[in-house]
Design a protein that fits this description.
The protein has 341 residues and is α/β, with parallel strands linked by helices. The protein contains eleven helices and ten strands. The relative contact order is 0.14.
C-alpha cells in the first residue's frame, strides 16, 4: 500500500456521516427505477464488496464494480462516467477508508441506499507504522473463541504498518477474516432485504448459504493452522492483521504501509533476526504489487517467496476464480510456510 494511499482527514470526516443510510421507505419498484431489466442497480466499490453483492443479490441485482481487475483499489481515481454511474445507482456498497475517491463521490451522489461495510463489524488498529530505522512495533490481540497454536490464544503483529485515517480509524482489511466477513455478509443481506423487500426471501436464503461457506472456511483455517512449526509469517503488505489475530499468528510487515518500498538495512536485519528466532521460512508478496521487495529480502535472508493474496481484486494471475477459492489458496500457502502438521 503506497504512502500516497493514506486517507486525508478531510476525506474521512466527509465520509463519516455515511454508513448504513435510511434503507426504509424505498419499495422494490422505487429501487428498481432505472435499473437493468428490473434488477436492482448495485455499484460496488472494489472486489470484496462486489463479491458480496453478487452472491447475496443473485439474479435480482445488476452489479457494477468501480475497480477493474488488476487495478490497485487504493489508487483508484474515478472517471466522470464512473461518478455518474454511482449517482445512477439504486444501491451502493463500499468500505469507507479504503478508497478516498469513492468515499467522496458517494457523499456527493445523493443515492438513497448506501451501505458502508465498515459499520457492520468492529474495526481495530493493528500495530504501528514500521519506521525507517526498524523500530516499529505492533500490538498483540486475542480473539475470543479462537486459540492460536501457541496455546495462549494471543496473536502478535509486530510492525503491521497500517494507520488508515486519523485517530479513531482502523484497519479496513476485514474481508481477510472469514468470521468478520460473515458478519458483513449478514449486514449486507439485511440491508438488501430492506431496499428491495419484494425479493427479501431470496436475499435471506443467499445470505444464509454464503455465511455457511464462510463458516466452513473459518473451520478450515482454524483446523489447518492449529498445529504448526512456527506462528510467524512475513509479508510485504501488512493486510493480514485480522487473519493473524483470528488464528493466533504473528504478522511481520517488511516496510509498513508501502509494499513496494525498499526496506531499510536495519529492517532487513530485524526481519532476518525474527525469521531465525521464529523459524519463519517465507516472505509473502501479493498479486497486484511488485514482488521486488519480497525477492530482495528473501535473497538477503535465505528465505523462500510465495503469494499471500490480500484479495483486493481478481485477475488471471489469482490463485482462484473467486474469494472462496483464493482464500483456500492462501490457507494452503500459509500451511506450507508455517509447517502445518
Amino acid at each position: 500500500m503506497n504512502v500516497r494511499r493514506l486517507i486525508p482527514a478531510t476525506a474521512v470526516a466527509g465520509a463519516a456521516v455515511l454508513g448504513l443510510t435510511a434503507l426504509s421507505g424505498c419499495s422494490a419498484s422505487d429501487a428498481a427505477d432505472g435499473s437493468d431489466g428490473g434488477r436492482l442497480k448495485v455499484t460496488a466499490s472494489f472486489y470484496p464488496m462486489q463479491f458480496l453483492a453478487e452472491r447475496i443479490g443473485g439474479e435480482h441485482v445488476a452489479v457494477t464494480g468501480l475497480t477493474k481487475p488488476g487495478v490497485e483499489p487504493h489508487d483508484l481515481e474515478l472517471s466522470p462516467r464512473q461518478i455518474g454511474s454511482i449517482s445512477d445507482s439504486d444501491y451502493v456498497l463500499y468500505l469507507k477508508g479504503v478508497q478516498p475517491a469513492v468515499d467522496d463521490a458517494i457523499g456527493q451522489s445523493g443515492v438513497r441506499n448506501t451501505l458502508d461495510a465498515a459499520t457492520l463489524t468492529t474495526l481495530e488498529k493493528h500495530g504501528a507504522e514500521v519506521s525507517g530505522d526498524g523500530d516499529g512495533h505492533g500490538h498483540g490481540h486475542g480473539h475470543e473463541g479462537h486459540e492460536g497454536g501457541s496455546g495462549d490464544g494471543q496473536a502478535h503483529e509486530e510492525g503491521d504498518g497500517h494507520d488508515h485515517g486519523e485517530e479513531g480509524g482502523g484497519d479496513p482489511h476485514i474481508w481477510l477474516d472469514p468470521v468478520k466477513y460473515a458478519e458483513v455478509a449478514e449486514g449486507v443481506g439485511a440491508s438488501l432485504q430492506k431496499a428491495d423487500p419484494d425479493h427479501a426471501a431470496d436475499y435471506a436464503a443467499n445470505t444464509k448459504a454464503l455465511v455457511a461457506e464462510l463458516d466452513g472456511l473459518d473451520t478450515a483455517y482454524e483446523s489447518g493452522l492449529k498445529s504448526t512449526a512456527t506462528r510467524t509469517f512475513i509479508t510485504t503488505h501488512s493486510a493480514f492483521g485480522y487473519l493473524a489475530e483470528r488464528y493466533g499468528l504473528t504478522q511481520q510487515g517488511i516496510a509498513g504501509i508501502d509494499p513496494e518500498a525498499e526496506p531499510s538495512p536495519a529492517r532487513i536485519q530485524e526481519i532476518h533476526t525474527v525469521a531465525a528466532k521464529e523459524k519463519a521460512t517465507t516472505v509473502f508478496f501479493e498479486t497486484l504489487a511488485s514482488d521486488r521487495t519480497a525477492k530482495t529480502l528473501a535473497q538477503d535472508t535465505g528465505l523462500e517467496t510465495d503469494v499471500l493474496d490480500p484479495l483486493e481484486g481478481i485477475t488471471d494471475r489469482s490463485r482462484g476464480a473467486d474469494y472462496i477459492e483464493v482464500m483456500e489458496s492462501n490457507l494452503a500457502a500459509l500451511k506450507k510456510a508455517l509447517g502445518a502438521k
